[in-house]
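Researcher: Go.
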Amino acid sequence: MDIKGCIPKDKFDTAAIKRASQIGFPMLNPILPDLLGWVQDANWPVAPHTASLLSTAGVEILPHIRAILNSEDGVWKYWTIELVVTNLNSDVQIELHDELARLAGHPTKDDQLEAVDVAAQGILNA
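Model: Structure:
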């Protein structure tokens, strides 16, 4: 199976995530950025399924999550923390400590507006 078929075509394409789940990691590592794009909005039907799958990724997901957490997109940061980071293996999650501490302690105005600081602090307190 071509892993490009595991990238949702729209916010309703949960079948693509089902195919991706059958392949699993590390085979899906090349499309991690594409998959992370589908957790930008938790209201999308594909978002929780994608987040569940991404939560099983290994350390290869870290640079992609760091890129999101260092972006200016507060909504994407919030949902990435709430849907993915919260459920990552603790060994992977601990690697994001510095980024989460920065977001919790020094949030931008957008981060505060989107409650990114609260979500980050929630992970740190867990």
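Model: The CA atoms of residues 25 and 47 lie 18 Å apart.
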